[in-house]
Amino acid sequence: MLSLFPDEFDSTKNLLPFDGTVLYFGKVFSNEETEFYYSNLFNNIDWQNDEALIYGKLITTKRKVAWYGDGDYAYTYSKRTKIAKSWTPELLDIKKKIENLTSENFNSCLLNLYHDGNEGMAWHSDSEKALKKNGAIASISFGAERKFSFKHKASGEVVSLTLESGSLLIMKDETQQHWLHRLPPTKKIFAPRVNLTFRSYVS
Ligand SMILES: O=C(O)CCC(=O)C(=O)O
Ligand SMILES: [Fe+2]
């Protein structure tokens, strides 16, 4: 499609055809902010190797993760429990900006560090019981551009887009009930990507 404004995205247009809402805002941070947050988060976040229990075996992933929030939430993910750390000033600034842009509120953030295209995230939905039902999840990307896909659980229909550095994506309404999402691995990307998913937990 030909567009006069190829860098602008209609953040009111739902990318999903049914059963949920996904809005892509494109780049919402300036190039300077994007560079600043990328290196700040890369260097200062308390990154941990993710651990998952898969068929009873403890697996350590190459991708690194961190969890920050308002309170010391205990968060169970892949059957491992983690306690949220207190916000850094930069994470709070990002959270405020995203809350203003989306008119949503978030109380925690799961961060992912993908060192290169070999690392990704398999099909899943973010629908743990502790998450607010049908609450919005805001996904912010800094660093390498990566493809991101949704797959409808019943029909198998797939919707894909590219997540740019400095961009914001929102998943809300029944999205997590009806759609899986993933970050496919790729042989073509050699640079790291930092991803932040702001979420709302109920205690
Ligand atoms: O890295 C991404 O863009 C997605 C991460 C994700 O789906 C998650 O943390 O649940
Ligand atoms: Fe997810």
Automatic annotation (TrEMBL):
Highest taxon of source: Bacteria
InterPro entries assigned to the protein according to its UniProt record, in alphabetical order: AlkB-like, AlkB-like_sf, ALKBH3, Oxoglu/Fe-dep_dioxygenase_dom
UniProt-listed GO biological process terms: DNA alkylation repair
The protein's required cofactors: Fe(2+)
A GO term for molecular function: dioxygenase activity
Claim: DNA-binding is one of the keywords in the record: no
Limits of the Fe2OG dioxygenase domain: 105-202
Alphabetically ordered keywords of this record: Dioxygenase, DNA damage, DNA repair, Iron, Magnesium, Metal-binding, Oxidoreductase
Name recorded for this polypeptide: Alkylated DNA repair dioxygenase AlkB
Organism the protein comes from: Soonwooa buanensis
Organism taxonomic ancestry: Bacteria, Pseudomonadati, Bacteroidota, Flavobacteriia, Flavobacteriales
